[in-house]
Amino acid sequence: MSKSPKSTKTPAGENAAPDMPLIVSSDHLATEGGWQFSEFEYGLIIAYNAFSRWMVRCMGAVGFHDFNPLDVLVLHNVNHRGRAKRLADVAFVLNVEDQHTVNYSLKKLFKAGLVESEKRGKEMFYSTTQTGQEACTEYGRLRELCLISPATLSNVDKDEISHTAKVLRSSSGLYGQASRAAASL
Hints:
Layout: E1 2-3, E2 21-22, H1 35-62, H2 69-79, E3 85-86, H3 87-93, H4 99-111, E4 115-120, E5 123-128, H5 130-153, H6 158-183
Antiparallel strand pairs: 1-2, 3-5, 4-5
């Protein structure tokens, strides 16, 4: 947590940080012109870590304990819509730049009997096995029980959740462009 400067107007007319403590991960990044991004980034950090912990623990409750968050995401993506997918497609949809990490997840899932592969021409396609489909179904059941039902009972604003998802998707474009710009420096 950091103390930010009093709210003022910058030369460009932007509001500076409010006169109250901000919850940011790095005070030196909470500049007057972009303190909102520092708040957003801290929110991303803690949300991602909580989501990662949730995925791993839910998968463990299903009976599969040796998976990391990317493994779980890959499994659900491969299972999505019941269509076989190529490694490149899975990496693209999950916005994972290093395809070798997705390939490693696919190998782990294959070894666990959750996905299978089929060669079509020069391409390898992956789909979930019956066991993989059952694991995804059970994960979904536990998700309803442990996450969705309590959220509904606590009157979480689902429209706000949907809006936040849209903000996250559009922000990923900003960070993607920024990463390309930084790579060219």
